[in-house]
TrEMBL record:
<dbReference type="InterPro" id="IPR029069">
    <property type="entry name" value="HotDog_dom_sf"/>
</dbReference>
<dbReference type="Pfam" id="PF22818">
    <property type="entry name" value="ApeI-like"/>
</dbReference>
<dbReference type="InterPro" id="IPR054545">
    <property type="entry name" value="ApeI-like"/>
</dbReference>
<protein>
    <submittedName>
        <fullName>FabA-like domain protein</fullName>
    </submittedName>
</protein>
<dbReference type="InterPro" id="IPR016962">
    <property type="entry name" value="Dehydrase_ECs4332_prd"/>
</dbReference>
<feature type="domain" description="ApeI dehydratase-like">
    <location>
        <begin position="14"/>
        <end position="109"/>
    </location>
</feature>
Amino acid sequence: MMLPTVISQQIIDNHLANIDILLPADLLWFRGHFPTCPILPGVAQINWVMHYANQLFGPMPVVKSIDVVKFQRPLMPDDKVILLLNWDRANDKLTFKYLVHGEITASSGKITLCQ
């Protein structure tokens, strides 16, 4: 499986979203990355940002650039995570943050989309 388990999701004012997810140990992304200590690759995190933005906010423009991304804590099998999305339509900016256990920032970033 490529996507995490969604526990709940909430959209606020048509531009903010909170998605509570669980990272099952059998996610395809964990295989081989790394064999003795599996972590979720950054490319998977960006992929999920775009997937859920498209699902919750409607079709998104394509990615123009990934301006700022910080990986501060690895996301590991069985972590419970909150993905926060903020879609600034006027400036074509999508910001995100992954929180582990609802409070520890694992990663965050800003994506510029084409107009």
